[in-house]
Write a structure and sequence with these properties.
Elements: H1 2-5, H2 13-23, H3 27-56
């Protein structure tokens, strides 16, 4: 989606990660991936807890 909105010269984080994966495996790629996974799991867990609390009331 970003490729359609920005110019070809703009390098976004997903694009940088993709280029890094194609060239070599780097721990700098794993770090943001792990952070994104943890944030996603936390958001889903908080939403689940909030939904349960609203259902109890």
């Amino acid at each position: 989606m970003t490729l359609f909105i920005t110019s070809v010269n703009a390098i976004t984080l997903p694009r940088l990660m993709w280029m890094g994966l194609r060239d070599n495996i780097d721990p700098a790629i794993a770090a943001p991936s792990v952070i994104l996974i943890i944030v996603t799991v936390l958001v889903l867990a908080v939403r689940s807890v909030v939904t349960r609390q609203r259902a109890v009331r």
